[in-house]
Amino acid sequence: MGLSLSTVLQQRTKFFTTISKVNFKELALKIEENISFNINQIEIERLIDNNISNAVKYADVNKPISITLKQEKNNIELTFKTYGKEILNPKKVFEKNYRENESKRGLGLGLNMVKRICEKYNIHYSITYNKGQNIFTYIFEV
Fold first, then answer.
1. Counting CB atoms within 10 angstroms of each CB, which of 10, 47, 75, 135 has the fewest?
2. What is the pLDDT confidence band of residue 22, given thresholds at 50, 70 and 90?
3. Exposure of 121 by Cβ count < 10 A (0-12 exposed, 13-18 middle, 19+ buried)?
4. How far apart, in Å, are the Cα atoms of 129 and each of 5, 11, 99, 116?
5. d(CA 87, CA 63)
6. What's the per-residue H, E or C state across the chain?
7. This prediction's pTM
8. Domain 3-141 superfamily per CATH
């Protein structure tokens, strides 16, 4: 059966709602119900939390942070879309100690942890840039 990604994502986005509002960001959610995956709850929370906290930290103010969870046949897709400056080195942002914006606080460890979780559970991850948005996509095979 697995862990309900739908429920965990709803809980984590609820937690971040106030933090995002204080930073003049709004979470725009599209979460399909009853999507489950065999993953440790703490690890999926880390993946979600890191993406949301980065979105709050780096995205343009007064623009929505779009978070989508959907399932199509054998794939679950989790995406985080934020308006902002294009990530110049999408391959490098998942590397340990790499920080694209040195003026922002952080150790450059969060996305490396996300990468390790993805590798452990064979989750495909990518970053693209389209129409002024950085798009972090995670594909879970079921």
1. 75
2. very high
3. middle
4. 25, 27, 18, 23
5. 17
6. CCEEHHHHHHHHHHHHHHHHHHCCCEEEEEECCCCEECCCHHHHHHHHHHHHHHHHHHCCCCCEEEEEEEEECCEEEEEEEEECCCCCCCCHHHCCCCCCCCCCCCCCCHHHHHHHHHHHCCCEEEEEEECCEEEEEEEEEC
7. 0.93
8. Histidine kinase-like ATPase, C-terminal domain (3.30.565.10)
For residue 106 the two structure tokens come to 């952080």
Evaluate if residue 103 carries a pLDDT over 70.
no
Provide the mean pLDDT of the chain.
93
pLDDT score of 98: 79
Structure token pair of residue 129 = 């840039």
| CA–CA separation, 19 and 58 (whole Å) | 13
